[in-house]
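hey
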């Protein structure tokens, strides 16, 4: 059975990213049942701001040992930083996390 966990609100009360959510993040990784699950960051609330992407990489990539990727959804970022090929690869990556392999 597949599990999808969607969460938001990764800033502390003073607006900074923090490690406050570490217990929740560990539980999310545990729910996958995998040692190195895949995690996808979609920073829509922050317009794909690099600060939050960096935090996600630190938390999920380094600390929780997930294979991470980022799906930028704002056209200015896709045009400026990503090719359409990379954009579609990210979408496929996202679906690979959702659809179980048989």
């Amino acid at each position: 059975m597949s599990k999808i966990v969607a969460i938001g609100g990764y800033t502390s009360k003073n607006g900074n990213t923090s490690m406050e959510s570490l217990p929740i993040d560990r539980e999310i990784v545990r729910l996958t049942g995998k040692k190195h699950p895949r995690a996808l960051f979609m920073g829509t609330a922050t317009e794909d701001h690099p600060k939050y992407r960096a935090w996600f990489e630190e938390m999920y990539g380094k600390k929780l040992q997930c294979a991470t990727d980022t799906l930028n959804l704002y056209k200015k970022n896709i045009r400026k930083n990503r090719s359409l090929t990379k954009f579609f690869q990210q979408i496929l990556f996202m679906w690979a996390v959702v659809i179980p392999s048989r």
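The chain is about 45% helix and 10% strand. Helices lie at 22-32, 50-63, 75-81, 84-98.
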